[in-house]
Design goal:
This protein is of the alpha+beta class and 70 residues long. The chain contains 2 helices and 2 strands. It has one domain. It has a two-stranded parallel ribbon with strand order 1-2.
């Protein structure tokens, strides 16, 4: 994350779509922890590896949805 701009380049960790954590050799618990860390960041914009960029509110929505509303 670029702290001075609040820009997060998330790559494949988080994007605006169905998040995948059940591929062979994936560790869903580690992935969930990574999402929780990202959701706490003070970001202005997220640039994912796929799809359109989005803001902090959308990041939190995506993470909450994936974690089952926790």
């Amino acid at each position: 994350m670029e702290e001075h701009t609040g820009t997060l380049y998330s790559g494949d960790v988080v994007y605006d779509g169905h998040l995948v954590d059940d591929l062979p050799e994936s560790d869903p618990a580690v992935y969930r922890r990574s999402l929780e860390v990202l959701a706490r960041l003070d970001v202005a914009v997220v640039h994912p590896g796929h799809g359109r960029s989005f803001d902090r509110a959308r990041l939190r929505h995506i993470v909450t949805r994936h974690l089952g509303g926790r």
